[in-house]
Design brief:
With 164 residues, the chain is mainly alpha-helical.
Length: 164
């Protein structure tokens, strides 16, 4: 029986990947917000936030690996690197808010949200670049190709899924 060779899907450009990044990340963010509402009534807010942050980062990393960057299942190293980028984003947004409060001791909610959302947007763009270039760059090469072994061609999991 001959193996079926499925052509690798064309790689998607950075704009399409960025749109998927925003949709996946935004969806996980909304889910996290709801989870925080539920958890905060049953646990201290700091503990609830920590648990929701860890779980949402794990979920977002898996979604980014599979859908945003089409790299397949996220490996433990991918989760670690992604967690580090999330930590850096947290430190960046916290630093922006601390700087705001240092220069303007009593900012209104509109100014505070403007600074927070601006810092979050910049951090998100930086995170997207790091995830695309350093964390999930391996997926474009290995997850979509077929691998010849001896005289037979073995299909990757992705190629079999595409064929089905």
């Amino acid at each position: 029986m001959a193996a079926i060779s499925v052509p690798a899907p064309a790689p998607t450009g950075p704009l399409a990947a960025f749109v998927r990044f925003v949709v996946c990340g935004g969806g996980v963010g909304l889910l996290s917000s709801g989870a925080m509402l539920l958890a905060s009534g049953h646990a201290p807010i700091a503990l609830a936030n920590a648990v929701v942050t860890v779980l949402s980062t794990l979920l977002a990393t898996e979604l980014h690996g599979r859908f945003t960057f089409r790299a397949g299942h996220a490996r433990p190293a991918d989760h670690l690197k992604s967690g580090l980028t999330a930590t850096i984003c947290y430190l960046f947004t916290t630093g922006a808010l601390l700087a705001l409060h240092a220069v303007h001791p009593n900012p209104g909610p509109l100014l505070e949200q403007t600074v927070y959302l601006s810092a979050s947007g910049l951090a998100g763009i930086g995170r997207f670049v790091v995830l695309r270039v350093m964390v999930f760059a391996h997926g474009a090469r290995s997850a979509t190709a077929t691998r010849p072994v001896g005289r037979k061609t073995l299909l990757t999991r992705r190629a079999v899924a595409v064929a089905a």
